[in-house]
Amino acid sequence: MTLIQKLQNIVTEKFASDDIYVRHAYSRNVHPDLQGVPEYVVRPKDAKEISEILKIANEENIPVIPRGGGDCEWGGSIATGDVGIILDMKRMDNIVNLDEENLICTVEAGISWGKLNEYLSRFGLYTGCMGPGSGLTASIGGGISHHSVGAGGCAKYGACTNQLVSLEVVLPTGEIIETGSQANKFSKFPFNRFGNGPDLTGLFCGDNGIYGVKTTVSLQVFPKPPFANYKTFLCPRNSAEVVAQIFTEIRQKGIDVYDAMYIDEILIKLGTNTFGMYPMFEHLKRKRGIVFYVVEANSEQELEEKVKQLDKIFLNKKCEDLGPEISNGNFAKWQYTEGQWQTYHNCWGIIPVFENITTECFTPINSFPKILKDIEVWDMENEENMKKIEKIAGFRPISGTGVVPLVNGNNVELTCGFTTFGCYHDGEYHEIIKDINLKLWKSLLTLVLKHGVQFYMMGNIPSRLMVEVGAYTSEYYNLMKSIKKTLAPHKILSSGKFDFWEDD
Ligand SMILES: Cc1cc2nc3c(=O)[nH]c(=O)nc-3n(C[C@H](O)[C@H](O)[C@H](O)COP(=O)(O)OP(=O)(O)OC[C@H]3O[C@@H](n4cnc5c(N)ncnc54)[C@H](O)[C@@H]3O)c2cc1C
Description:
By secondary structure, the protein is an alpha+beta fold. Helices cover 35% and strands 19% of the residues. It has 17 helices and 23 strands. It has helices at 3-11, 20-25, 47-60, 113-121, 140-146, 154-157, 200-204, 239-252, 265-274, 300-316, 331-339, 343-348, 368-381, 383-393, 431-449, 460-469, 474-487, and strands at 16-17, 40-42, 64-67, 85-88, 95-99, 104-108, 125-126, 164-170, 176-178, 213-220, 222-223, 227-234, 259-263, 290-297, 320-321, 354-358, 361-364, 398-401, 403-405, 411-414, 416-421, 424-425, 428-429. Strand 5 and strand 6 form a beta hairpin. The protein binds flavin-adenine dinucleotide (FAD). Flavin-adenine dinucleotide binds at residues 29-30, 65-73, 76-77, 89, 109, 132-134, 138-139, 141-143, 145-146, 148-151, 208-209, 213-214, 344-345, 348, 457, 494. Flavin-adenine dinucleotide is lined by residues 29-30, 65-73, 76-77, 89, 109, 132-134, 138-139, 141-143, 145-146, 148-151, 208-209, 213-214, 344-345, 348, 457, 494.
């Protein structure tokens, strides 16, 4: 029996394919220069099917790559080389249970943040952290695999893994386990993450799909507070430094802001004057960086008190309140009431052929202005390569940052990198653009990494780069590697990442 027949026996003919068109449809994420055409695409319906698929993959020695929404910016959910099986999780998008009394929701891992929150909103609930900015398509399983954060609520609730209670995971060899409270088989429903021995849920958080396939996820959910306020401010000059001071003060004063976010001057200028991304800023005479906050409360009085404290911080730093309505420039209101999962999509879709190559990371608040300064210097040092791209594309790549939200603790998610072009121009394919893009990407990843930041998306190239640059101590790296080799002795499951088999 051929492999495709074996796969079709498990999931039916409709949900396993080796058709070239289907395979190409799964060959990319959003990075313009990374592609891997898989040999097979399979769309399982449950953990049992995934277990059978993985057992066959072990017998046949063929890699498997889980894929949720496919929104990874670093090629994490595409095939490494033109081999392997893509395991498309998006058929598994059901809500398994909402425990309204204990405020815990159990879902299949392929469900999107948008679909889950639409469902929860009927009960006056939300997920707290609303997942990543790509949450209309990105899955809960992908978010947990990345420690995603960014779509809203991350200053108050932290990354989406903070809310995690338990997971059902299919291990690379096909065994199915449950973690957290569910490690005790007598537990009737998920209720807590920690206990029953070590935190094995944590092993699969941010693992980028290397240690197992998450099939069911139980998350804490929260009542959405009835009151909220949102204000947007124009920054003074040197806005990154000023914003870093504002974010630090918010944390030092212990104000439980729901969101605080910075969008830098270049993005505001280009996005408003050239690309029509920000109609709410068109009327502004001075286009500078903007910063905003969103705050929630259970009473008007509580809200008023928090707004008073926050306004004082922002106004003391010479930030200018743009007014209450979206048409005044109140981006925060748009973000909280309408744009939750749209803010970042705008950045990706500025104009066709414009492509973002990111080096985004978590970093302490007080470190991000310096990183941005170093990226400016890096940009100048790479003028020659930038010019080569400009000569073909008619536009010079732009480096810097986009949106910087305050996240867990005293940290930000720094969405830095450079915006460049794909290889097709005037009907011609220019391989040289791909070569330059990849060279620049690796160089910028290295520069940012050496600031001691944390990357959370790991495709093949960046995860290997961390090893190459010597970012991990050998003790830490060997521990990760021995866990991988124990769980996946036949190199199944996203095995190109982290270069674990380099000495085999
Ligand atoms: C417009 C846009 C905005 C974005 N905004 C943000 C943001 O604000 N914050 C942020 O963190 N990221 C952001 N991202 C990056 C990315 O979308 C997120 O990290 C997202 O959480 C990925 O989810 P996904 O379902 O698309 O994962 P995929 O890309 O499908 O997969 C991501 C990784 O997880 C693995 N994986 C997926 N599902 C499973 C599973 N069930 N079990 C095991 N492994 C699995 C994959 O193999 C891969 O390694 C953005 C991307 C875009 C295009």
